[in-house]
Each structure stands twice: as C-alpha cells, then as structure tokens.
Design brief:
homodimer; alpha/beta; 434 Repressor (Amino-terminal Domain); Rossmann fold; 3 domains; six-stranded parallel β-sheet; six-stranded mixed β-sheet; 12 strands; DNA-binding
Chain lengths: 334, 334
DNA sequence: CCAGGCAAGGCAAACGTTTGCCCCCGCTTG
DNA sequence: CAAGCGGGGGCAAACGTTTGCCTTGCCTGG
C-alpha cells in the first residue's frame, strides 16, 4: 500500500513551499526559471502525479479532468460508437469519462445525475430522457455544463449535437417510393422522443411530397427495442393487404423486423423491401445487403465532447447546436 | 451555481457537531436515538447527499463507491455486454463505473491505470494487455483490488473470470469435423493473447482427437479486427486447395471473413462452411443463420463485479477464479 | 534619498469528509 | 464514598490540493 508522492514531498525535496510547486504545475503565478527547474526535477525524481481527487475537491468547477456521459444503453451500437467518440477527444485532453447506462429509467437517470454532481464532474453529455427533463434542468441551474446529444431539450438553451432525423427518414422513404413502393409500413419510435417524432415526420413528408395518402393501419410505434420490432413487423405483414416494404426507425427494431420476415419465409426485396435507421454490423454482408440510414454516431460523440470542452473553458460562450447529416446507404434490400 | 448542503449545514440545523452527523450516516459510533432522529430530519429537509469527492479524499481505500473498468474497445459488442454486466451489479450497490478504452495500446493502458489510482477507485476490472503486464502488477502492489476478465495474468494471484476458450473452440471444430469437413481453415487471434492461444489450442486438439493432420497453410493469425478477418479469409479461400470451412476466432474477424466470402460469391454452407467465436447481432436472421460459439459476456462482467465487490469488503479472502462455459449455437452456416 | 512598484515565493485557509482522542455525566461496584 | 466504566457526543487533525494575501528584496523614477 505505497502512497503516491504528494505536493508536500515534492516541495520538501525542492526546498520550496507547496504553493510554489502547485503554481509551477499549473503555470499560474510568477515563479523564477531556476526554481521551476528544481521543482520539475523533484517531480520527476519522485514520479509525482497530482491527486485528482484532492484537486477536484478544492478546485470546484474547473480542471477536475472528469467528464460524465449518461446514455440509455451501451449495448446499443449507436451509443457505443458515440461513447467512443466522446472518449477519444476526452483522452486527447487528459480527461477521463464516467459512463452510466440509464436504460430509459428516470430513477436511474436521476441517480446518475446526482453521482455526477457529487463527483464534481466538469461537464455532462447525455440524451435527455424526454424533452422536458426537470432533473437535467436542475443540474444546468446548478452550473454544471451540459451538452445534449441525439435528443434535445425543449428549454434550457444548451449546446447540442443532433442528427438530422427528419432528413434521414425523408431520403429513405423517398427512395422507397422511387423504387415503386406505394404501401410502406412504418415501424416508428416512441412518440415522446424527439428522434421518434422526427423520423415519423420524415416518413409522412415523403408521402405528402409524392402525393401519396397516409394510411393509419400501416403506421405502428414501438419502443426502440428488438422485441417490438419483431412484434410490429408481424402485425404489419399479417395484414390482409400488407405493405410491400417496411421503414424501421432504429437498428434494434430493424433486427426484430428481420426476424419476423425470416420467420414468415419472405424474400427480401422481392416479397418485402426494408430500410432501417442505423447501420448494423453485418448489414453489408447480409443477404441481401441492407439499405440503411447511417447515423454518424462517432462524430456526434466527438463533436459533443469538443463542445463540452470549449464550454468548460469559457462558460459565457454562445451556445451552439449542431445538426449532423445521416447518410442513406443504398444496398439491395430495397 | 447553488452549492449542495454539506455536513456543516446539516450539523448546524440539527444543532450537533459534524462528527455526530457523519457517524449517524455511516452507522459508526454510538449516537442516541433522539439525536439520530434530529439529524436524519435535518438531512431530509436540506436534501443532503454526501460529497463523494471529499469522502474519497479522506477515506482512502474504502467506500468511495467508484469502480474502474478498462477494456480494449467498447465498440466490440463482447465488451459492451461485459461492461453492462459490470454496471448492473455496481448500480445495485450504489457504485459508479469509470470506463476507459485502451485500444490494446500500452501507453493508454498505463495512463488509465494512473487515472484510476489517482481517482482512488475502490477496485479495477480489466483484461490485461498481455500475460505479463507490469503496469497492472504495480497497481496490485499498491493495494488496489484488481479482477481480471476474459484474459488473465500469469502471476499475481488475482481473482479472475474467464471463458473456457479451449472448450468453446474444441466443440466448434468437433462439430465441423462431424459435418464432414476435413480441411478446416483457422483464422486465429494474436499468439500473445491467452484467448487467442486457447482457441487455437481447441482447434488443434479437435484435429488430434479425430486423427486429422494439422496443415500449417490452413492456419492464419490476425489481430481480432475486422480487416484482418477479411484479408486472411481471402488468403485461405484463394489457395489452390482451399479449406471447405472456416473457423474464425472472434466476432469482428467473422464479419470480415463474411465480407470475403460475399465478395467471392461463395454460397454458405454449400461451398464454404463457417463457424465464428462470439455471437453477432444479426447472426440469427442472417441468410443462412450463423453457427457461432456464444460467450456469456454479460455474465463475465457480472461475476467479475461481484468478485470485486467481495474483495473490497474483505481483502484477505482467498482468490477465486471462475471459468464460464461458452455455448455452441447450432444454426445453418456449418 | 525615498516612495512606489514589481517579481518571487511563503503562509495559511478552505474544500467536505472521517476518525482518533477526549470530556462529561450518570450509574454501578466494592 | 471513591473509583471505574460506558454511553453519548464534541474537538480538531488529516486527506492533497488551490489560491488570496502577505512579505521580502530589488529596482526605478522623481
């Protein structure tokens, strides 16, 4: 149980006061060149590393080098990519990341939000659980920098990074229509999530533009989980006049829909076409390869972390909101 | 920038000393019932939450409620599942998890190991970068509890949770042989990783058991990344006497091999069979569905976290090492 | 020659806990 | 009646930093 060297040890060795050591480390205050030399040497000799905990305790609200990231579920590849983006830029600036999964559970979100504050993180990145998230607003009021990703908050005037969900859905469904599909089933997301709503809006607008009627019986809404994709696809494909193609609003539900299609022995794209939101790991080698809307998840995380770092440096800077473009990847499933 | 209530505030409100408050919270020391009541009420009224940073600073080596998890890459679904397992049991015990990706990069691993110690985490879970990992050994010597997952350390006498890689590979290749394959290509992992070695050993033992010769030209070794899976599959399938089936030693490389197979227009399983280590998201709905060796990733994380929590409570307890069984999921690709 | 200024660096408080030590008081025991 | 004891709770140090303020000595301008 060897203890790390502390400021005191370094100070003793360099024959200066601890404040001098602190100041040479942080480049704050006036210290003579020769003294700095001595201090630096002592640090090197002792292998000194500043204690992050003590630093955070003292220096409330700056330079604690810890970022919080709260996401629904790391098992969702979209969020894994996003997390990776965050971590990479954090690492480059010597920040570490406290990662939590809240599972769309408000109690859990609240718990983790508390943890983040009690850990005095420098800032938090998260997709709010819904558009009016009082817990998040509270955190913001406390003065902790927050950046929203993927989903956004109605109020609060926060930095945010989103994907243009409307555009992505619009392009996808336009393409489906261009392929000759007239009855397109929608497997949408929850109506109270901004992503769910926007994608549905894209689906509808594509129909409107093409002068196609919207049929309620072709529009179903799930919870972004695989199970609901399967169930809803079965419902749609079991209709007496089933859709000739399916537009599925996220990756997990797409996997579910694919299950249903396989179970019914339907051939893609001949008997049923499918386009899903989110790139999937095996999509390219799937048989047939899957046409998807790829979200730039990594970039979302990267941009969010960059924004957060900037805000930590300058809390007065005007808030910026980024909208990244998804990409329709044309393959063979529709 | 409203500050949280502190011990001092609670003490003032309950008209007691801060030590009394601390002791009622931690159930340490003798405090009268009525005093406890007063303190508890004051805490409730002020919405007091103990400051985790201060607590960690003071109480070195216990109850700081933070676990460290260092993994190669969260984008690898195996580690995402594992991370989720860790987080779920951590959450249940009010622990938070500091997650870092080290990308098989020793400098990065070292950096994060430092961070963990400087953050005074209660314990660390990680797959060591290789079997003799001096940085990890150093951390152990410093007195921080460590649990190895997936891979293990040659020395150190640590708690660990692994998957029976040898068994998994053995069963898979046995099955391939039972299907009539006599020339089975191996796309293996790095020779200096325990997982890579064990799986290769399983491949070899299956051949030995069946009295089949090992052909060097059929055994290739990659780095567990998709790219190398593709390249090596191309090499193997381009042989003048190519293998009739491929055994691929992790998920990412399996995806790569599938790319190569698709590029060559080969039909699975008629022209080439394939079995991969790791379950893949779309494996079940793939055409044909993929036969894989499923690793219980979530359980590995779960067990590791449980072991770590136990060790944090009692540092003297004998070390235990778990070996979880993988499962051969028979589908149609071989 | 002196006041004022500036560079260099020391002193000590503060961040919010935990914890060893001590004190007080009332009761038991011999 | 004195000594001992134990329950209840206060005091203050300590964890390792950062930082406001102060001191010192030297230099410069008037």
């Amino acid at each position: 149980m060897k203890k790390n060297a502390s400021l005191v040890d370094v100070a003793r060795r360099a024959k200066v006061n601890i404040s001098t050591v602190s100041r040479t480390i942080n480049q704050t205050g006036k210290i003579g060149m020769d003294t700095q030399e001595r201090v630096l040497r002592a640090m090197r000799e002792l292998g000194y590393k500043p204690n992050r905990v003590a630093r955070r305790l003292r220096a409330r609200g700056s330079s604690s080098f810890l970022l919080g990231l709260i996401i629904p579920n790391i098992q969702n590849i979209f969020f894994a990519d996003l997390a990776r983006g965050v971590e990479d830029v954090a690492y480059r600036s010597n920040y570490a990341v406290l990662l939590c999964n809240y599972d769309e559970d408000e109690a859990k979100e609240r718990f983790y939000l508390d943890v983040m504050q009690l850990e005095s993180v420098d800032g938090i990145i998260l997709p709010p659980i819904h558009e009016e998230d009082p817990a998040v607003l509270q955190v913001v009021r406390n003065g902790t920098p927050v950046v929203c990703v993927d989903r956004s908050l109605a109020r609060g005037g926060l930095d945010k990074v989103e994907v243009d969900n409307h555009l992505g859905a619009l392009r996808a469904v336009e393409h489906m229509i261009a392929q000759g599909h007239r009855r397109i089933g929608l497997i949408g997301g929850p109506a109270d999530s901004s992503t769910g709503k926007e994608r549905t809006r894209g689906y509808k607008d594509a129909h409107l533009q093409a002068g196609l009627p919207l049929k309620t019986e072709l529009m179903r809404f799930g919870d972004f989980k695989q199970e609901s994709g399967r169930t809803l696809a079965h419902e749609l494909l079991g209709l007496t006049d089933p859709p000739s193609a399916l537009f599925v609003c996220n990756g997990l539900m797409t996997a579910g829909a694919l299950e249903a299609i396989a179970a019914r022995g339907l051939k893609i794209p001949r008997q049923v076409g499918i386009v899903g939101f989110d790139e999937l790991p095996l999509a390219e080698v799937f048989n047939p390869p899957l046409t998807v809307v790829r979200q730039p998840a990594y970039e979302v995380g990267k941009c969010a972390a960059e924004l957060l770092l900037k805000r930590i440096e300058d809390r007065q800077r005007p808030t910026t909101s980024l909208k990244l473009h998804p990409e329709l990847i044309l393959r063979k499933s529709c």
